[in-house]
Amino acid sequence: MEQFGRLRAFAFDKTGTLTQGRPSVVGLIPMALSTQEELLQTAAEIEQHSEHALAQAIVRAAKERGLKLEDRGEFVALPGRGGILRQGDQEQIVGNRRLFEELGTPLDAWKPELDRLEAEGHTLVLVGTRERLEGAIVLDDPPRPESRGAIEALRRLGVRRIEMLTGDAEPVARRIAEQIGLSDYRAGLLPEEKVARVQELVREFHGAAMVGDGINDAPALAAATVGVSLAHAGTDVSRETADVILLGDDLEKLPLAVRISRATRRMLQTNVSVAIGSKLAIVLLAAVGLSPLWLAVAADTGISLLLVSNSLRLLRWRP
Fold it and tell me: Any catalytic annotation for residue 13?
């Protein structure tokens, strides 16, 4: 409660935090796979093992089309990249462009198309193997309606640095940042890179908050001075790691929490000053023989009751 009101730097995750967290599939581009249904089914059978918002959107789209999903092989999650489904010696990969580039999958033939989609601000989930790209799934996730207002309110409260940290491509991050009025953002970050950036903010501003909702955000939440998660959109891991949970997933409660923290700090400072001042006065009176026993008791118990009563005024506090 004391630290939250002092923070001058806030970092936000994008997907599910600044955005609505319910991305939708808006395009299916088969490449090596013959049909859109085959592409979507392959991706959904892998992504059904993941809790990520993009994965859930793909699974939801497959079920809406009536596709039957089978549980095949062993799923290996790659935080910040995607996942791999292993079936014996075979691997099926679903993830972002960075993952396929790291695995050495040839992408040159599809580079113009991928560049165009990313430049338009879409999020891409690629499907394929180490040897070939089989297709791309295009998703969109609009920002939360309250994101812009929450950021503007934090600025009015004197927060000097507000950044968005995301693993998405730069054009996607730029489009969302423009929509919510945010000038500082970092794109293409892995979970460990988010942690490093949060630690930099903590050192630079002597404390920083991290607001996130996913499994990948938990390390950054732990690295922040104050970690903030969402009650419903957040995963179990993020809620367990966070210091503050926003009920109702309402980002506008974030500046409210800062105001409450500052009001609490002012109350603490007032109470401590009154307590020390009254005790000091009694000590000085006792030194000159003007402090009877009843006055010392009143200064001790009476002042304690007075300060507790003063603190209870916070229950009626309104911004």
Answer: yes
